[in-house]
Amino acid sequence: MTTSILHHETVTKPRTLERLITGQATSDGAGVKLTRVLTQPLQRRLDPFLMLDAFGTDNPQDYIGGFPDHPHRGFETVTYMIAGRMRHRDNAGHEGLLTNGSVQWMTAGRGVIHSELPEQEEGRLEGFQLWLNLPAKDKMRAPWYRDIGSAEIPELVTPEGVKVRVIAGASHGVAGAMQREVTEPLYLDLELPAGASFAQALPAGHNAFVYVYRGGLQIEATDVPVQRMAILRNDAGSDGVVLRAPAAARALLIAGKPLGEPIAQYGPFVMNTNEEIFEAVKDYQAGKF
Ligand code: FE
Question: How far is the CA of 111 from the centre of ligand 1 (A)?
Answer without folding.
Answer: 11
